[in-house]
Each structure stands twice: as C-alpha cells, then as structure tokens.
Amino acid sequence: MSFKKFLPLILGVAIAAGIFIGGKLNFTDAPDRLFSSNSKKDKLNRLIDYIDYEYVDEVNTDSIVDVTVNGILENLDPHSVYIPKEDMQQSTESLQGDFVGIGINFYTYRDTITVIRAVENGPSDKAGIKGGDRIVYANGDSIFGKNLTDEQIVSHLKGPINSKVDLQVYRQGEPELLEFTIKRDHIPIVSVDAAYMLNDNLGYIKINRFAESTYKEFKVKLDELINEGVSEIVIDLRNNHGGFLHIAEQILDEFLEDNTLMLFTKNKRDKVEKRFATKKGDFEEGRVFVLIDENSASASEIVAGALQDNDKGIIVGRRSYGKGLVQREMELGDGSAVRLTVSRYYTPTGRSIQRSYENGNNDYYHDYFDRLDSGELLDSAKIKVADSLKFKTPKGKIVYGGGGIIPDIFVPIDNSMHNETLRFLQRRGFISYFVFEELEKDRKRYEGISKEDYIKNFEVSDDFVVAFQDYLNIRTESEITFVAYNKEIKQYIKATLADQLFGDGAYEEIINQNDLMIEEVINYSKEHSQD
C-alpha cells in the first residue's frame, strides 16, 4: 500500500494534535508539565461553566471570578492584590507618574467643575485657563449638574494624546462665556511634593511615592539644591507607601559609593539578587537625614534601611510600617491584573523588616492601633525588639529586623487634641473648601505676590479665623472655636491658601515651619556641624 495514499490523513492528525497541544501549552511550564492536567484549574473552570450554563438564575460570573481571585489572594499575604479591569487605568497612571489630559487641579464646586489652578506650563496654563474658572461645556456637552459624577466629568477632559477639546468657561467679571481649544498632553502626577533650603546648608526634599517619574523629578530638585550650596539633605518619606523598587535604587545611588550593597532579594527557590550602587552618585559626601513614620512602607523602607545599614543616613522619626515583600504585576488576560508577591527583600546587613502576617490580614492591618495602645508612638522604649533579629552595621551600630525600620533619633507622634482636630478638618476638605471660597471673593488681592514674599510676609488675620469658625459651625452644626490653637489654624489656612495660589511645594514649606521632626534635624545638624 502506497505511503502517499495515507499522507493527507497523517498530516491531518498531526495538525489536529498540534492544535490540541498548542491550546494546552503554557510556555512558562517546565517540559515535564506540558502534557499533565491540572485538576485544580479544571475544577474551577468546570464550576464556572456549570454556573454559566446550568444554574437556575442568571448570574454575573465575572463577579464570581473576581470574588474567587480575591479569596485566593487573601490566603497568601496582605500585599498580593487583584486589580479589576475598571481600576487598572488609575492604578497604572499613579505608578507611571502621568496621564493624558488638559492639566488642571479642580473641585466640583456647586455642581460645576471649578479650576483651583492650572498645572504650570500644562495645556490649560498655556491656553489661559485661570484659578476660579468654571468649565461648563466640553465639545458642546454640558459638564455641570448634580447628576454627574467626577468620573463622568473627567472623561470629557481626558482623551488621546494630542487630541483637542473645545471648552466654554465662565469667569467672574466676564459678560460672556470664554472659549478655549486645548490640546491634550501628558500631565505629570507629581511625586516630589517640595524641595527647598531649610537654612544655608540644609536642604529638604519630600517624596510622596516611588513612581516611574520620581527619580527624574528627584534628580532635578537635588541638582537645584546642590547649585544652592547644600551640604546636608533631608529626605522626607513620611506617609510614603512605596512604589517601584528600581526607583528606590536609583535614588539610593545618589548617596552611596560605587559597589556599595543597597539591598538583596530572595525568592522561594532561594535565588538571591544583590543590588549595588554605581559611580553616578552626586551626593556621596554630604550628610543625609531620612524622615519616616508608621506609614512609611516598602520602597521608603528600602531607602531608609540601606542608608542606615551603610552608616550613611541618620533616620529620624518613628518605626516604619514593616513591608519587606516585593510584588510583580501580572496581567490576567481580560484587562485585569494581579500584583503577586514574588520575593522578599533584605537590607544590606541581612535583615528582613517584614512584620508578621501569620494571624491574618485583619490583625495585620490593625497594627497601627496596637502600636498606639502600647505607647510605642509616644515612647521609643515601648518598641518591641528581638535579640535574635539583632544586626550590626560596618561601624558597629546595632539595628533590628522583624517589623519596620527603627529610627536612630525617635520623635513621638504629636497626639494633642488640637492637632487631631486640625488633621480631621484637613482630611475632610473643610479647610480647602473654605480657603477656595474666600479666595473667590477677591482673587485680585493676591495678584503680583510672589511665592517667596507670601511665605515670608503674609499673615492670616483673626477675622479670617473667625470666618472659618462660622463656616464650620454652619456646616457641622457644632460650636467649634480655635481660641486654644489660633496660631496652628492660621498656619493651616496660610499653607492651604499658598497651595491653591502657587502649588510647587508652598504648602509643605509653610507647614514644616513648626514640624517636630524637622526641628530635631536642624538642632542635630547644628550640634554636629563638625562631624
């Protein structure tokens, strides 16, 4: 019998087998797994199919899958998380450090999008949009009214890069709506909040997260301070929850000498990857202070730990959060993703600062209240350490692992009642909204005032404070007075007003004038000026 007679049949079987194998193939699998079945995966797939096709009622199986994924991740560790499809854009923008839009900071004020200020040199700023402008139409569509959410409003303003949007704007004093055509562009999400000189030799940089753009922002500010003659620098990482590991490494590289170990990571197979500083650092000689608190986590702790372990940085504040796990984002094929913990990181002396999560996520996230109840946030002697987790730096300083970075100089939390009240008012937006309304009454009063002149000379009047009291008492139906902390509320109002007028770190520069940690750094710097 001729072989050629069966050739079409043989080719057909081969192609069918190839299609079958290809459909099952996972190119990350080891060879011995390519032909094996996975009963766990099959079980989940089969259950979803049963619900889809056989269950008595219509069910959104997408939501079931989301719940299933979250349930699986909750059994791993507190930092392995699922990102649904609808949240991916916002999550990505935050870590990328920019988005495409028209470049404004705004409130939805009395049902209308109202500009606080245009981003400097952004599309709206270049087009002539000003603080106080009300944007009422975008491409002919009204974007005001109670029925519109912030997300719906923003959707009219965001769009593809270089696309245009026609705006109609109400401006006080103008008889008709103003018209602007604005070309959308990349708008930075600022991660370096402030950079300025605290005194003739001590500089200050505040970083709010470690996004893709953070190192570039940081380097620009560092170079500016170097040009101003800085010899010591404060890196403020309070309330910084972290971000990209490689960005933390780039920032560390500015302070550590060539070939200095910055950290190492270890995965489940005990594969160790070490990260070393390079030759490019521009501040390897100067003294560095790092400010941390109980909300400084992940990449913030990498920076603090590496500088502390190399006897380079002086860590000031309170014990940090305690996150020593490294995540990698992995797409799930439908627009969603999972950030999965893939390794642990260790500081140069070999300590892991990840706190325990063996009692579950609820207990893990309750840690702040445990620290508060124990008195740790007020007294460094209450910080629990384990001798088994004791490490020593090259110069003999004792440091500890096992749950956060313990500072070299402890500064207790300001837990007085008046500061709690002020923080509450700030978080709820009361101060910001009040300042905006007051600014709207007479914007011309501030025209021609420079940021430097404002910070140095502007004073908030007692009448301003009384007006704020009246504003609060109407909206909260309470009887709030600021007699006991008149000075503090004036500082918050002045800082918030500066932020709305100038941005560019003006808020931090004013608030920091009475900051306990910064005062500690300045005093230490003066006392050890010859070290």
From TrEMBL:
Belongs to the peptidase S41A family. The keyword Hydrolase applies. Gene3D superfamilies: 2-enoyl-CoA Hydratase, Chain A, domain 1 (3.90.226.10), 2.30.42.10, 3.30.750.44. Residues 80-158 form the PDZ domain. NCBIfam families: prc. Keywords: Hydrolase, Protease, Serine protease. It comes from Gilvirhabdus luticola. Coiled coil: none annotated. It comes from the Bacteria. This is S41 family peptidase.
